[in-house]
Write a structure and sequence with these properties.
about 140 residues, 2 strands, mainly alpha, 2 domains, 4 helices
Length: about 140
């Protein structure tokens, strides 16, 4: 994304050194990047990440929800607290980050070109490894 001109906000929860390494790597290749700490399992932090991004850069063009956690435990060993942790990080926080982003990415109705661009991508060489996907080209109206 940085190679395509995007300013990349690297979100991290605890690994500030690793986040700084990613930022430095992007910057070393001529890209623009900053790191912002937020715990995506906490709704307030997920919202704050979006708000701080908009405050810093005046806009938000792309939100990639890629925080997640795998708990390597047997099904019978997962507790309710474990389940809540997984759902908070993998679903709840990202959902509310999208909701906050919608206050910024959903300021207009979709146009035919918006759909045509998605279709053009799906049939392009860049999407050659997409299979069996349901793609909702609705600008965030349905999540």
């Amino acid at each position: 994304m940085a190679e395509d001109g995007a300013i990349v906000v690297v979100n991290y929860n605890q690994s500030d050194e690793k986040a700084k390494q990613v930022v430095t790597g992007i910057q070393a290749k001529g890209g623009k990047a900053v790191a912002i700490q937020s715990d995506m399992s906490q709704v307030a932090d997920a919202r704050r990440l979006v708000i701080e991004t908009v405050e810093q850069f005046g806009r938000l063009d792309i939100l990639v929800n890629n925080a997640g956690r795998f708990m390597p435990k047997a099904l019978l060993d997962i507790t309710e607290a474990n389940f809540d942790q997984i759902i908070a990080l993998n679903a709840k926080g990202p959902y509310f980050a999208m909701q906050e982003a919608a206050n910024v990415l959903m300021k207009r109705l979709g146009l035919p070109k918006d759909i045509a661009d998605v279709v053009a991508f799906v049939v392009s060489e860049e999407a050659r490894w997409l299979t069996g996907q349901n793609i909702h080209a609705g600008g965030g109206i349905v999540m």
